[in-house]
Amino acid sequence: MVTSEVAPVITRFAPSPSGLLHVGHAYAATIASRAARDADNGRFLLRIEDIDIGRCRPEFETAIVEDLLWLGLQWEEPVRRQTDHMDDYAAALAQLKDADLLYRCFCTRAQIKAEIAGADRAPHGPEGPVYPGTCRQLGRVESDARKASGAPFALRLDMAAAIGRAGPLTWHDQTRGTITAEPNQFGDAVVARKDVPTSYHLSVTVDDHLQGVTLVTRGVDLFEATHLHRLLQALLGFGPPRYAHHPLLMGRDGKRLAKRDHPATLRAMRNAGVKADDLRAALASGDSERLHTLIDVAEGATDANHRP
Ligand code: GLU
User: Fold this and answer.
1) Class of 87-192 per CATH?
2) What does pTM read for this prediction?
3) 14 CA to middle of ligand 1, Å?
4) Domain extents for the chain?
5) Is the pLDDT of residue 5 over 90?
6) Is the CB of 218 under 6 A from ligand 1?
């Protein structure tokens, strides 16, 4: 008998434990879970993106698990927590360093701001003004001396060298089709921060590869980030997953639900008596009014609790 082997669809939801999950997270999580469930042998993973050590808290990680279980989601164990895998990011950095694609950057935010303000041309990238490349000019002796003096530094990717090494790249977005990668818009991106020896972009690229993720579902706000992730994959020798960037949920005021001024957390909804089944159905229906009605219940209860 001939068996045809179809690669399983492996998706993930990757929240940061820096606050309570809100309705936007529930939307993203259910999209990832559904994509796995709808596929033969699909697998849905959970990853805790906690490298931002200043903002992440263990109690939010506990709350994420509780809230996702309340929502009725099931994922494969073990959950991958990024801070448990710093060795993996160090190995990726060593690979980029050996390829001579990294340099130390000692600049402070204020120095970068001042440099940009004084420049004739200051290109803007997806994450703000592009770093002007100041520390790229530092000679090895100077860079080593500053490091030896204990000056904190980030590691930046030499974008021109990286693109030269990787050559032209494309990636696949489920809605928009084949996309030409344009990582250049990020300039010399930080791959290891001053306070933690990795970055969002590096960790996500390494983790998706090591977890075998085949379909990355995430909000369209991270569409541009994929250009950079595609470059990092090529430099590290990883095959690209496919991507599905979904729209973001908006409040009635047209603002992103993810923003702080919407207290539409899953916790608030649950405490206000919203049923998980109703929330799931509203999320799946694509009917924003249905969703807003449920959010109103949570907001009404929150207001009532805070009435003097
Ligand atoms: N941790 C990111 C967030 O909470 C998601 C990263 C991703 O899906 O690639 O927005």
Assistant:
1) alpha beta
2) 0.93
3) 5
4) 10-83+249-305, 87-192
5) no
6) yes
